[in-house]
Amino acid sequence: MPDVRGCHLPDDLLYDVGNHIWFRELADGNVKLGMTAVATAMSGKLVSFTPKKAGRAVLAGKSCATVESGKWVGPAKSAAGGEIVQVNEALVATPSLANSDPYEAGWLVILKPEDWALAKATLTPGAQVAAAYEAKMAADGFAGCAGTSP
Hints:
By secondary structure, the chain is an alpha+beta fold. Helix content is about 20%, strand content about 35%. It has a domain at about 25-120: CATH 2.40.50.100. The protein is globular.
């Protein structure tokens, strides 16, 4: 598992480094997405998670949810367009799950992608993400995840 500046980045995922979003391909052809450990460390403890409702369409590059912390409010953007088939209701109830467990309990939504091959081509495989994240953190002046939740 790549570890960049103390931030864990599982190598079985695909990453949209610019938007700090991870994607996990599911057996049924859908994709699960969530915020990376980098995103949750930068934003601080999440206090609100407002996803688009199941059945709603998401355009590639647009928001599938709004997240809010004490430091930041903004969109969680999906590199893939498609239909939201499930939202993480546990995260709606307890937004800080994204901080404590960003890759399992803290996922955002499950999407039925329209053109997954096209979107997937824009993502960075986990095994290759370390250099891209190191450059992004350096450009953003982010020291890393040390001292924050995993």
